[in-house]
Amino acid sequence: MMRVHVIVRGEVQGVGYRYTARLEADARGVRGWVRNRRDGTVEAEVEGAPAAVEEMLGWMRQGPPGSRVDEVTTTETAPVGDASFEVHSTA
Question: What is the CB neighbour count within 10 angstroms for residue 35?
Fold first, then answer.
């Protein structure tokens, strides 16, 4: 089990990024959360089997149609055992 904290920079707000991320996370069986930040980035934590987390990160580097991802930074963190993948409000 692994968990990563993710910051996504680019045109990632107002394009359905968070809601599509939830669908993609559910399809891969990863848990965690995603939210917009006031600085225009998207922040997330993704937890699951290493291969599933890497697949999710691959999707996050592309984003949904209409988005433009310029940079994705990740930091490994300790797993916390989230029960699902949630969309949170803006931080």
Answer: 16
